[in-house]
Amino acid sequence: MEQTLDMKALFSLTYGMYIVNTAEGGRLNGQIANTVMQITSEPLCVATCLNKANLTTELIQKSGIFSVAVLEEDVPMTFIGQFGFKSGRDIDKFANVQYELGPTGAPLIKDWSIAAFDAKVVRTLDMPSHVLFVGEVQSALWFKEAAPLTYAGYHLVKKGKSPKTAPTFGFNALK
C-alpha cells in the first residue's frame, strides 16, 4: 500500500482557540494558540505547544508559568489580531484589555473569554520548532456561558489565517 499524506485530513482534528499568556520580570505577554488540552485530572494539568520563535515561549521558559483564556465564538477579529498577528516585542498586548493576575502572577484575560486557567509548568518537551509545556493548574475561573470559538469556526466563519509561527501555517494554502 502506497503511503500518502493528505494534509486536509488534519482539518478533521478538533481544536479550540485560546490566548496563552505569561508574566516575567513585570512584563505581560500572550499569544493566540489552538493547541491547549487537559491531560490529567489528578493533579489537574493542561498542556500547550508554542513556537520557539515567539516571545511568549521565551517568557514561559524563564517564568515557569502560563495562563490560558478560552475564547468565545463572538470574539472580534481585531481582538484575535492583537494577540495573534502582532508581537509583544513591538506592542503592549495588554493595553486596554481587562484581566486579573492569577495565583502564579500570570494574567487571566476576561475580555471575550469564557474561562481562564492559571498553571505552573511541571514538564517541558523540546520539539524541532515548538516547545510543549505541561502545567499544573493553580486556579480555574468561569466567566460566562457562551459557545467557545473553535479552530474550524475561526477559519470558516471568521476567515482567519494561521500566522507563520503556527503549527498549522502550511494549511493556509489548502483553503
Number of helices: 3
The count of DSSP E runs of length 2 or more, i.e. the number of strands, is 9
Proportion of strand residues? 35-45%
Q: Write out the CATH superfamily name.
A: Electron Transport, Fmn-binding Protein, Chain A
What proportion of the residues is helical, as a percent range? 10-25%
CA gyration radius, whole angstroms: 16 Å
N-to-C series of helices and strands: EEEEHEHEEEEH
How many strands, what sense, and barrel or not for the largest sheet? 7 strands, antiparallel
Read across the widest sheet, the strand sequence of neighbours is 2-1-5-8-9-4-3
Which stretches are low in confidence, meaning pLDDT under 50 for 5 or more residues running? none
Shape, per Cα inertia axes? globular
Quote the average pLDDT: 90
Q: Which characteristics define this entry?
A:
mainly beta; seven-stranded antiparallel sheet; 3 helices; two-stranded antiparallel ribbon; 175 residues; Pnp Oxidase, Chain A; 13% helix; globular
Describe this structure in words.
This protein has 175 residues and is mainly beta. It has one domain (15-174): Electron Transport, Fmn-binding Protein, Chain A (Pnp Oxidase, Chain A), CATH 2.30.110.10. It contains three helices and nine strands; from the N terminus they run E-E-E-E-H-E-H-E-E-E-E-H. It has helices at 55-63, 77-84, 151-156; strands at residues 18-24, 27-33, 36-41, 44-51, 65-71, 99-101, 107-109, 113-126, 130-142. A seven-stranded antiparallel sheet has the order 2-1-5-8-9-4-3. A two-stranded antiparallel ribbon has the order 6-7. A hairpin with a 3-residue loop joins strand 8 and strand 9. The radius of gyration is 16 Å and the shape is globular. The protein starts with 17 loop residues before the first strand and ends in a 19-residue tail after the last helix.
